[in-house]
Amino acid sequence: MAVNVLVVNQKGGVGKTTFADEIAWGLTRRGVEVGFGNLDPQGGAVHEEGMLDAEDAVNVIDTPGFLSDNVAEWAANADVAVIPVQPGTLGLKPMKRTLRLVTQANPDLAVGIIVNNFSDRRVLDRQFLELLEADDLPVLGTVPTAEAFKQGTATGRSVVEINSNGKAAAAVEAIIDQIMEVTGHGE
Ligand SMILES: Nc1ncnc2c1ncn2[C@@H]1O[C@H](COP(=O)(O)OP(=O)(O)OP(=O)(O)O)[C@@H](O)[C@H]1O
Ligand SMILES: [Mg+2]
C-alpha cells in the first residue's frame, strides 16, 4: 500500500493546493514515486489526478476549502495529514477543528502544520507560532509570502525550480525533508 498524505484545512485559501503541488514536486525531486489525488471539485492543482498503489509510492491528496462531510472518511484512509494555516487568530479555530476531526477519524494519523505567509518580523506571526508550540501542535515549518508561488502555479513549476536560492525554496525544502521522514522515506 502507498502512503497517503492528505493536505487539509476546512478554511479556504490557506495554501492547500499550493502545498499539495509543492509536496508532490518535492518528493519527486527526491526520487519518490508520487501519485496525486484531487478531492476538490474546484481543483486548481497543477498535478493531474492519478493515485498509485505501489508499496513505496506516496499519494498527495488536495482537499476543498470547505467543511465536507467526507473529511472523516478521507482522514481514515490517510497516513499523514498536512494542515496549512495562515497566522492570525481567525484561522486558529478552523485549523483546530480540522485537526480534531481528522485525528478523531484516524488516531494513527501523523499530523503536521505548515504556517504559511509567515514573517518573523511580525510580532503577531511570532505570537501565533508560539501559541501553536505552547499547545504542542506539530509544526512542520513556516513559509514566507513569495511571488514565486503564484508564478509556480501559473507555469507548472515548484518554487524551488523558479528561485532555488530564495527563502520560499529553503522553507519548502525543509518541509519536504520532514515529510520524507514521516512517509518512511528518510535516511
Ligand atoms: N506563501 C505564499 N506566498 C504567496 N502566495 C501564496 C502563498 N501560499 C499560497 N499563495 C497563493 O494564495 C492563493 C491561495 O492558495 P491555495 O489555492 O493554495 O489555497 P487553498 O487552501 O488551496 O484554497 P481553497 O481552499 O480555495 O482550495 C493562491 O493564489 C496561491 O498562489
Ligand atoms: Mg485549493
Structure write-up:
The chain has seven helices and six strands. It has one domain (about 5-180): P-loop containing nucleotide triphosphate hydrolases (Rossmann fold). The protein has a six-stranded parallel beta sheet with strand order 2-3-1-4-5-6, with helices on both faces. The mean pLDDT is about 95. It has helices at about 15-30, 70-75, 90-105, 125-135, 145-155, 160, 165-180; strands spanning about 5, 35-40, 60, 80-85, 110-115, 140. Helices cover about 40% and strands about 15% of the residues. Helix 1 (about 15-30) crosses helix 7. With about 190 residues, the chain is of the alpha/beta class. Magnesium ion binds near residues 17, 44 and 62.
Can you give keywords for this protein?
7 helices; 187 residues; alpha/beta; six-stranded parallel β-sheet; single chain; Rossmann fold; binds adenosine-5'-triphosphate; 17% strand; globular; 6 strands; binds magnesium ion
Q: Biggest sheet: strands, sense, closure? A: 6 strands, parallel
The structural class is alpha/beta
Number of domains: 1
Helix content: 40-55%
Provide the fold topology.
Elements: E1 3-7, H1 16-29, E2 34-38, E3 58-62, H2 71-76, E4 80-85, H3 89-105, E5 110-115, H4 123-134, E6 139-142, H5 147-155, H6 159-162, H7 167-182
Parallel strand pairs: 1-3, 1-4, 2-3, 4-5, 5-6
Helix pairs in contact: 1-7
Bound molecules: adenosine-5'-triphosphate and magnesium ion (MG).
Summarize the structure.
The protein has 187 residues and is α/β, with parallel strands linked by helices. It has seven helices and six strands, in the order E-H-E-E-H-E-H-E-H-E-H-H-H. The mean pLDDT is 96.
